[in-house]
Amino acid sequence: MVRIWLNHWFSTAYHIIKLIRAYHPDAVILGSNENEHSVLADVCDEWYREPPYSESCYADYCLDFCRAHQVDYFLPRRGMLQVSRRKAEFEALGVSVMVDDYPIVDLLNHKDAAYARMAEAGLSTLPEYRIVTTQRDFEAAYHELQSRYSYVCFKFVHDEGGKSYRLIDNNRKGYASLFKKQNTRMTLDAVLECLSEKEVFSPILMMPFLSGVEVSVDCLKTEQGLIMLPRIKDSTRFEKLTYDPDILAKTQEVFDLVPLEWPCNIQFKYLDGKPYFLEVNTRMSGGTAMGCIGAGVNIPGLAVCKLRGEERPWTLVPEEHYVTNVETPLVL
């Protein structure tokens, strides 16, 4: 009987765990989270509360956890960079870790380095972009990009979940703005005022605002071939699973540049009918289960098979489907 640990995943991993169980019904699933009331506790065999996160010692916590709980397979979400750096130490304990090698994870977790690598390799879908660390450079880059594009957006290079993402919209001021949701939009003046507090700030990635639809591609490399499940995301609760040959080709192009072995999510966004590369998340996305259920392909289950040294055949019929989530009340 194998023991599989998922550390501090987001709530939609509830469905990822169910997909793992479909292929590995005898596995013991261990879950941990800093939030003791996480919904994931409902689908785990063993549940543990994590201490407050500390980047400097989190990998030590994970190693200690694996020793104490006889973990066989570790599927990290929190601390992936630190865990990948010390992957050999986990393997020395007999723990197989579902994470790519450190140079790859490090590259893709630093968007300035990742974009530079993609640009050097000639990625055909890379948007025009600037990396800035001072208010003066930010303002200059804004005016340069704004002269060619309707809107400019930005976020910090070191970010997860797009928390720092902002769209510069100079119409977001005055009396009329009181009747509009501000959400992620800010005026240039407001942004510059915030940045003025730091002489040099963490690197910011600036690019044109890509106003078209976003495509999120859930992927897994297998011996049989590359699984690619592209989901079109919009402002509704519905997503469309569709297999545009152009998106599939551009996803393969990313894999040709970066040899990813484990589940990942590649994001594109359209502008004027052309898809542009946004980023690679070196883990399963929050919407992985939606793509898997829509396509009839179990990426989490197959990934654990691969981690165990097994290969299972899979079948994918590239048919378009709409998928959505239905919220279900649970007693925790």
Task: Describe the 3D structure.
There is one protein chain. The protein has 332 residues and is of the alpha/beta class. The chain folds into three domains: 3-99, Rossmann fold; 107-111 and 211-324, D-amino Acid Aminotransferase, Chain A, domain 1, CATH 3.30.470.20; 128-208, Dna Ligase, domain 1 (2-Layer Sandwich), CATH 3.30.1490. It is 31% helix and 24% strand. The protein is built from eleven helices and 16 strands. The protein has helices at 13-23, 58-68, 80-85, 87-92, 102-108, 111-121, 135-146, 188-195, 245-257, 288-295, 299-307; strands at 3-7, 28-33, 46-49, 73-76, 96-97, 130-132, 152-156, 166-168, 185-186, 204-208, 214-221, 226-233, 238-241, 264-271, 274-281, 321-324. Strands 15-14-11-12-13-16 form a six-stranded antiparallel beta sheet, sandwiched between helices. A hairpin with a 4-residue loop joins strand 12 (226-233) and strand 13 (238-241). Helix 1 crosses helix 11 (299-307). The model has no long low-confidence stretch (mean pLDDT 93).
